TrEMBL record:
Organism lineage: Eukaryota, Viridiplantae, Streptophyta, Embryophyta, Tracheophyta
Coiled coil region boundaries: 255-309
Annotated membrane topology: Multi-pass membrane protein
Organism field: Punica granatum
Main location: membrane
Cellular-component GO terms for this entry: membrane
Localisation: Membrane
Protein name from the UniProt record: LIMR family protein At5g01460
InterPro entries tied to this protein: LMBR1-like_membr_prot (IPR006876)
Amino acid sequence: MGDFNLALVIVAIVVCVLVFIFNVYLLVNYQHPDDANQAYFPKFVVVLGLSVAAISILMLPADVANRQACRHAIYNGACNLTLPMKDLWLAIYIVDAILVFFVIPFAMFYYEGDLDKSVGKRIKSALLWVVVTAIVCGLVLGILYGLIGKVDFTVRHLSSGTASFPSSWDFSHSQQCLGNSNQCSAYLAPASSEKTWTMQTTFPEYVVALATIVGSVLFTIFGGVGIACLPLGLIFSFIRRPRAVITRSQYIKEATELGKKARELKKTADSLRQEEKSGAKGRKWRKNVKAVEKELLQLEEDVKLLEEMYPQGEKAETNWALTVLGYLAKLILGILGLIVSIAWVAHIVIYLLINPPLSPFLNEVFIKLDDIWGLLGTVAFAFFCFYLLLAVIAGAMMLGLRLVFITIHPMKWGATLMNSFLFNVGLILLCSISVIQFCSTAFAYYAQATAAQEIFGHTLQSLRGIKYLYKYNVFQIGFIALAGLTFVYYAAFGWRRRKPSGKFQLSN
């Protein structure tokens, strides 16, 4: 037993180091050149946040592996040798909540502060916003915890009579208790034996529960949209691909049009900057800024597409071959992603929405993979959890391009500003809690008897005021509904290329 847990600890340490190195690699390659050799604190927050999100996802497979240390226990104290997963869960999610609600907002306020101000004034301004947020959040959490921070467990009161020790036992299906009582059988006991057992939950568990609810709302919206648009976006990107290299005259014509569009955008941006300096930052101004951001993203996509259709330089033929291979890779990844998305939707319907479940479905798949090789099921399990996080990011990007009230924060290789990094890290951290809760519920058969099940399965689903959201599967139904609507949308309009509107309602 001790050797098993020692191996698990070693694997956990190695994985944490690899996750940290990989996140540093992402930061270095995605950051904007303007942020090179500066903004070190936001960069530290980005690496820390991504590491916490990745580790929190990997902790559920680790929880399952940790549970297996007790599977063949031959003495009662064997489970004392396992890792304290419940304490680790609470610690990682308290850190998650602190990062999402305090550290990342502070880093964003500091990064986006007026550069004309001194560092001290920018820190003071950012701290002021964070302190106000902390006071409000603390008051709300304290009041809610004091009033409704309780869990209501539905239990049956079972009892039996007493009798002298007999020489033979006389039990049957209809007589399962001693004496004339029928109160020891949960199946035969009357409905009046049901009782509600109320107890106060711990404050860390309550913080995790409320953060999970906030994350679940975002996860339902972005994840439901993303589970469909992630694979379909890749497939339709292949369908809309450039079929052949254009001529030089066509390239000059298209480049001239893009240059004209770029000048119009610059003129519009200058007008908006003048409005900002004059203090006219009203609703119309924000709407125009949003429109300019969308048109700028569309212009960048058009420029990239034009460069693909007319490769230049000594390696033009090589670049065109790589472009063709890239679109083929998108098609393959899109088909594989579509299979995973369909498996997710089918599993939610079969295992979660239908009561009793028709089949354990993916739970059985993971168990059989574990029988083939010890970590194969765990790897597949972690992959399905990470896929949900990718779906959340894809859904946020899609809705951000189409809805006015959602801010666009694109992630681009070598051109991502720190505020976009921080926003997406905050979104990933907030939704990672819900992804874990969702996975622990969806794969309850595979992840049974784990610390995650205790926190997210029993406490969360019995918490007063919140339990009805889980009792009636509100999040799962919303997830499936949005996935279906997104699929219909892509089937109807996904093959079309989006046209820029070019309409701006300028005040002047």
